[in-house]
Every structure is written in C-alpha cells, then in structure tokens.
Design goal:
231 residues; alpha/beta; 6-stranded parallel sheet; 6 strands; 12% strand; globular
C-alpha cells in the first residue's frame, strides 16, 4: 500500500477555505507552508485553515531563493514569517505546537546550507517524520538529517498557466511516470511520499478545483494519507 503526507506551498490564497473544506471532507490533514506576505494578503483565509485543523509551517516571508541571500538575510526572512504565524495562531485561538519549515524552491541556501540547518535546529523548528522514506537518494542528499521539509513528489501544477503548454495532462503523465528523473515514482510497491501541491488562485482559474482532480485520482489508486508526524 502506498501512503503519503500532503504538503501545500505558498499559503494562503483565496481558494484556501475551499481546499481546507475538501481535505477535511476526505479526512486529510495537510501541512500548509506559508509565505508571510501571502498570509498578510489573505489573513482571514489563513485563520480559517488554522481553526479547521491544518498545520501551518514557515515558507519564508517573500519566497526568495535562499542561495542568493546572506545568512542574516535568510534568517530575517524566516523570522519575519515566524512573527506573522505566531500572531495568526494567537488570533485563531489555537496553540502552535509544531514549527515545520520549507525552503522556497527547495533552495537550501547553497554554501550557507549548514549554517541555516544549525539555525533551524537551534531555533526550535520541527523535522517532519521521514523515517519511512527509503529512497537511496533521500539519504545521499542528507534529506534524512536536514531539519527542513523536502518532498518526494511535486505535481508541478503551478506550471499550468495561459502562456504555458503544461496542462492537466502534463500533470497526469508526471503522476504515472514510473522512472522520473527527479524524485520518486508516485505509484509503486509500498512507496511513502511527501507530496507537494500549491495554493495558487491562478491555477484555480485555469483548472477549477485542481487539487480535487489530483487527490481524487490518488485515492482511486488506493493511496492513503497520513497525518503529519514530527521527530
């Protein structure tokens, strides 16, 4: 049986409440990784997610490529988002028990990677439980020891845009690629995944309820969703 943890980047958005309602209807608890500026723009939508049981993690304030920044600039990005999330949880009347983090673009900071991992560790960020991920490349790239949350499969549905030839069918092909160049095959024998979707209103305009389209197919294929766990 294949299982997965669902993560959703670039929270929040206008369509966040609809995504949250759908996930709760299906009994799926996801980690939403928030950019501070998006939370500021769609604050009520962000409150809705927290009040309705979703975990919200830090995805920086403005979504820069961390390898282009100094360590100090990276930390400012993380801390500015942290302050917003602390206020969000307080306003929602919910206790914030875990603090996961994901680097924008999966860019771990280049030459500053170890310094940033040290900061995350010492600042009380939480590592998602990835002990069941057995892909050799996961350990070869030190993803099993890094504090931040990486992924094993990215739907890349954010590429569905008016000026792009990337379509729903492109995502479908990616989902059924048995030997991907990046990441792991979505379907296999007892695969475990950390899945990556995005909270983008632009995708919603191009493919209404896109998150349902892909998640429903996963459920039809027998994939089960795990609740977020932390080490």
């Amino acid at each position: 049986m294949n299982s997965a943890l669902l993560t959703i980047d670039d929270f929040s958005s206008k369509n966040t409440p609809e995504i949250v309602d759908y996930l709760n209807e299906k009994g799926i608890k996801a980690i939403f990784f928030a950019t501070g500026q998006n939370v500021e723009q769609y604050y009520e939508e962000a409150l809705y997610a927290v009040k309705n049981g979703m975990v919200v993690g830090n995805h920086s304030y403005s979504h820069p490529a961390f390898s282009t920044l100094s360590v100090e600039e990276c930390i400012r990005e993380m801390e500015k988002c942290e302050n917003i999330l602390a206020q969000l949880y307080q306003d929602a009347g919910m206790e914030r028990t875990v603090k996961p983090f994901r680097f924008p673009y999966g860019d771990k900071g280049g030459g500053n990677r170890q310094a940033l991992q040290k900061y995350l560790r010492e600042s009380g960020f939480h590592k998602v439980d990835d002990t069941q991920i057995a892909y050799p490349w996961w350990k070869e790239n030190n993803l099993d020891t890094d504090i931040d949350t990486f992924w094993t499969f990215d739907f890349e549905e954010y590429k569905i845009r008016p000026d792009s030839d990337f379509t729903r069918e492109s995502v479908w092909e990616k989902m059924h690629d048995a030997d991907p160049k990046v990441g792991a095959a979505l379907f296999g024998e007892n695969n475990r995944h950390i899945l990556l979707l995005h909270a983008h209103d632009e995708t919603e305009e191009m493919l209404p309820e896109y998150y349902k389209v892909f998640i429903e197919h996963l459920l039809e294929k027998g994939l089960t969703f795990e609740e977020p766990g932390f080490l």
